[in-house]
What we know:
Elements: E1 22-23, E2 27-31, E3 35-43, E4 49-57, H1 63-81, H2 85-90
The chain binds zinc ion (ZN).
The site of zinc ion has 5 residues, from loops.
Amino acid sequence: MTRRPRCPDWCAGGHRCGLGEHRSDPISITIPGAGTAVLTRVRAADGTDHADIRLSAALPADEPAARLRLAALLTHLRTLIGPPRAARRAA
Ligand SMILES: [Zn+2]
């Protein structure tokens, strides 16, 4: 008999829980005219946890300004998920 692992307290269960993966209810924020972010906590089948983030950000109509915004987004995302400052100095 195969026992299903117990869900963590934050798991939404139902269709969000299966194949060894657990997912929370998504949390979304919308800034009118700027964009929307949706964050979901996930525990993968290997037991590691991560945040699944979907981001929709408005871009300026002006192409150079849009590219500048995209570069800024990449910089901020890299800062957010990159290695901590101490690890960067040691490398
Ligand atoms: Zn679950």
